[in-house]
Amino acid sequence: MVVDRLKTGIPGLDEIMNGGIPRGQTVLISGTSGTGKTILSSQYLYEGVKNFNEPSVYLSFEERPESIKKNMLNFGMDFGPLEKSGKFAFVKYDPYHVDDIATNLEGKIRDIGAKRVVIDSVSALSFYLREDDNFRRLLFAISNILQNLECTTFMISEVQPETLGLSRSGVAEFVADAAVVLYYRRVDSTFSRAIQVWKMRGSSHSERLHPYKITEKGVTVFPKEEAFIDVKQGSTKL
Ligand SMILES: Nc1ncnc2c1ncn2[C@@H]1O[C@H](COP(=O)(O)OP(=O)(O)OP(=O)(O)O)[C@@H](O)[C@H]1O
Ligand SMILES: [Mg+2]
Fold it and tell me: How far is the CA of 165 from the centre of ligand 2 (A)?
C-alpha cells in the first residue's frame, strides 16, 4: 500500500521520516526546554502555507502569539501576511480556562480549512489540569477532532532533563502516531543537538540519531550524518 505522505518542508526532516509524515498522523515533538520545538513547529506551519498551500493553525498555551511571531522573524518567517491572507491562525488559550477549547479549535480549523496544526504544548495542559482524568479527556477530544478533520499535527511535549518517557504526563505518547525526540547534550566541552524519529505508525524511518542545527534559517537536520551523543545521560527513554 502506498502511504500518502505530507512533506514537512523542514530541511532534512522528511528524509529521516522516509519521505514525510503519513497524512493525518499526530507527531509528538519531545525535548527539553530550548531544544527548538517552537522553531521547528513554526517552520512546519510556515512551510505548509507558503509552499504546499496547506492552511495552518497554531494553538499556544504558553508563549503569546506576539512573542512567537516576533521571534520567528529572526528565522525569516513572517506570519503577519499569512494571517491576513486567512490561511494561518494563532489560537491562544489560557491553560486554566479550557472549557470551550475543543469546539473553538474545531471552528478555527474549519474556518480556514487547516490541514496542519501545532499544539504548544501538551505539557502545559497537563501541568495546569491537575486532574489526570480531565487532561486525558481533553487530549482525546482534541485528538478526535484532529482525526475527523484529517489534520496532520505536531504535538509539542516539553520534558524535564531527568524524565523517563516522552511526555510529562505519560499520556500524550498514546494519542500520538509518531514521535520525534530532540536532544541537547554535552559532548566534551560543548553541547550538541541531535534528533531521532522514535516511532512512526505504518512506516519505516531512520533508526539513527542525526545532528541538527538552529541557524538564521531555523532548524536544519542532517540526514546523512550520525550524531554521537549519550542519550542515556538525562534520558528521554521510554
Ligand atoms: N538566532 C538564533 N540562532 C541560532 N539559534 C537560536 C537563535 N535564536 C534562538 N536560538 C536557539 O533556539 C532555542 C529556542 O528555541 P525554541 O524556542 O524553539 O525552543 P523550545 O524547545 O520551544 O523551548 P521551550 O520548551 O522553552 O518553549 C534557544 O535556546 C537557542 O538555543
Ligand atoms: Mg517553545
Answer: 19
